[in-house]
Amino acid sequence: MLQTYAERLLANTLEDLVRRGTLDVTLPDGRRLAFGDGTLPRAAIRFTDTRAVLALLMDPDLRLGELFMDQRLVVDEGSIYDVLELLLRDADAVRPGVMVRVLDAMRMSIRRFLQNNRPGRARANVAHHYDLDDRLYSLFLDEQRQYSCAYFEHPGQDLESAQRAKQRHIAAKLLVEPGHRVLDIGCGWGGLTRYLVEVAGAGHATGITLSEEQLKGARELAARTAHPQAYDYRLEDYRATPGRFDRVVSVGMFEHVGVGYHDAFFRKCHELLTDDGVMLLHFIGNSDVPDFNNPWIEKYIFPGGHIPSLSEFTPAIERSGLVVTDIEVLRLHYASTLRIWRERFLARRAEAVALYDERFARMWEYYLSMSETAFRYQDIAIFQVQLARRQESVPLTRDYVGEREARLREAEARAVLPGLTPSGT
């Protein structure tokens, strides 16, 4: 009877979710169900046991990824991306079941505990993801190892030029001048700091990270630039960084701060900026009301992570003494970035299996696929927030952004930016 109830509940749920396209489902006893209107995209999945059906119904946010990783939910036609697209693109119109709503309320209540990113825990959380075998990232990133949203200036733009456009856009908003001292909080492999020195003309760049692998790569590449003495990379928590800087930038790091540490973060940024300093904060944000971190992402990919809403982080900015001088929302740019990453990863999937195993490769395919569908069909976007101590530190119109981008584009032709090619060589 429990099996019959579970199958009926599954059928009702999928009938509500899958309205366009086609999803075929094979139950553990071999019976087949079909959902959708018969059009494309088309995918077919198969459950290997009844408990897998029950697990999915009770906690879809966590269990869908786990079932795919463990091959208890098998994709027989199409890809896991196709399955997620079918499930998510009309999901906003469907009210979750009682069990899911109860779980959501519970997760919302404990999110501060999960995001208790004190220095020691923050370091462990970073190591979980960013200190994986460095060769993994060479499978899908651009040669500068930009592990953040690219900026697509036109349809069909390739990843390398779109990532360069992102660096150019950020440098223009930072208003970098010759001799400026720049701090990059969460510098990754150092691609942005190298751009700010070698192209934008900054006099010195300090990059801080909690990843030993990224620190090693950043130092190696800085040594091959025309100005190796202009870089200082450190394994350092932002809370421990001393000094003051003309420009502060942070790309893809604020998501790891945690909702309980927003005040500490922005107070520290205020302390680090000179009186006429400018900061650019680029991060994944939630365009809807505050929410909890996806439980599958929390468990397997980014422990301690959080995608903040505007209403969550702007009060902390106000309390810090910083002034918001500009906010730009980059819609769908990350969906395009993730599509290229996913395609590159799948083209070299066998190498990921060789580095780890099949389950790991499925985990990363699910991570890239789920992230892409979230940016494409849910309320997730990139926020670029420009901050200053004084409102007059930034021009009163936005004309300067395009003007500076044009000058930076010319400077790029003269600069040499050593990078790690996608093959990792």
TrEMBL record:
Indicate yes or no for the key word Methyltransferase. Answer: yes
What keywords is this UniProt entry annotated with?
Answer: Lipid metabolism, Methyltransferase, S-adenosyl-L-methionine, Transferase
- The record places domain DUF7884 at 21-93
Q: Which Pfam families match?
A: CMAS (PF02353), DUF7884 (PF25371)
SUPFAM superfamilies referenced in this protein's UniProt entry, alphabetically: S-adenosyl-L-methionine-dependent methyltransferases (SSF53335)
The coiled-coil regions, if any, are none
State if rRNA-binding is listed as a keyword.
no
Superkingdom of origin organism: Bacteria
The UniProt entry, under InterPro entries, shows: CFA/CMAS (IPR050723), CMAS (IPR003333), DUF7884 (IPR057206), SAM-dependent_MTases_sf (IPR029063)
Q: Which family does it belong to?
A: Belongs to the CFA/CMAS family.
Please report the name of this protein according to its UniProt entry.
Cyclopropane-fatty-acyl-phospholipid synthase family protein
Q: What is the lineage of its organism?
A: Bacteria, Pseudomonadati, Pseudomonadota, Betaproteobacteria, Burkholderiales
